[in-house]
């Protein structure tokens, strides 16, 4: 049960839930929504105020034009010309004179309304300034109660063309009242809108992170025996689907890794059990049936052969461990790949002949800087695999020389063996990986040879490519950087020879 903390009688949510992704998404949504709604409210408030003030300004312009039709300055006194018997004209003139001020060029007030007086009569300097302007001026002023008025002031001539100061105004109180009412109502309702948006955000966040919870639940349920678990995609094609797909791919890789480990354990057990069983059998035979020194010697020789097989397996495992931990250090020196390859082919000629496989090739001098032991292991593993997976009557061909890529030497080992299916090619350099089918299951091995090949090529700064078709054979191409400023080893000055010629001389 979730634990709660009470502070001053208020029950609080658990800290973990307060810091959860759902809460953070909700708070982010609420914060964004709040900022957006405040911005929208301020925008509409400003827009409303501008529109209403524009209406007042337009009405003021109309009154300014109408006032010029009714106002006359005669004998230095303002006269409003209107038909006293016309109620409409009297109403218009009364409205024009509700907020007005008329003064001469010296600032002497000739007429001022009570409302304008409450706003404040313009000073003489202000009157002279406005009279000096080429156009009339509109400005805003406030009375002692804070009510705003829009005032338009300018000049109007008398019968002799002398300028007089004239100003009329309209109240902005209705604008202030309407804008204030809108502001109060909007921001009064805003907390309720934010609260509703918070609840909606909480629901949407819960729905949004539901796939994440599925991933977490699936990850919690995954064990070594349950790596086949997959989370179905939602089909939205968004980041969550990408996350689910990545998680499924990860579990697939883990499943393959566990399967490789299981296969490796099985293969190691089989490979270790076979020589151990043979050793035990040889020793038991010698113990219970051998009677002469020759019989004991024969049993001991057979046991030593099986011990050597067992030692080879242990050395391979030890070498793998050292390679993975970085304990293997390279002893680089100038090497002629043609010479090393010829020596290695000499060693594999007998196994190839025993299996009925033709081992041939062509050598061209190629000087690299490398560790001789590791380069020999690289070539040995490639040749061993090629011979093992090539049936009797097949062929294995090796070529060494300069690569098409500048600065690289090239080793190519191709065979006419069983080949590798396309779906297995991306994994053949993985640790413990072996192609499993009817043609390869009969071939013993731990699936470490090509892993060592890939590691050796990598630590020498090269690269390896493979092309293969089932039933047609495989072609491994290794590129190794050429040696820089390295002297040629002895025996390098010779013309290219084919492998068949070198082998015939040896045999």
Notable characteristics:
507 residues; alpha+beta; Helix Hairpins; Heat Shock Protein 90; 3 domains; five-stranded antiparallel beta sheet; five-stranded mixed beta sheet; disordered N terminus
Architecture overview:
It is a single chain. The protein has helices spanning 15-18, 21-70, 87-96, 114-119, 124-131, 173-208, 210-221, 239-288, 293-325, 337-355, 372-388, 449-459, 499-506, and strands at residues 5-7, 10-12, 71-74, 77-80, 100-103, 109-112, 137-142, 148-157, 163-171, 332-336, 358-363, 367-371, 395-402, 408-415, 463-469, 473-481. It has three domains: 17-208, no CATH class; 239-325, Signal transduction histidine kinase, dimerisation/phosphotransfer (DHp) domain (Helix Hairpins, Orthogonal Bundle); 332-506, Heat Shock Protein 90 (2-Layer Sandwich). Helix 2 (21-70) packs antiparallel against helix 6, helix 8 packs antiparallel against helix 9 and helix 11 (372-388) runs antiparallel to helix 12 (449-459). It is of the alpha+beta class. The strands form five sheets. The chain has a five-stranded antiparallel sheet with strand order 6-5-9-8-7, with helices on both faces. The chain is rod-shaped, with a radius of gyration of 50 Å. Strand 1 and strand 2 (10-12) form a beta hairpin. Helices cover 52% and strands 19% of the residues.
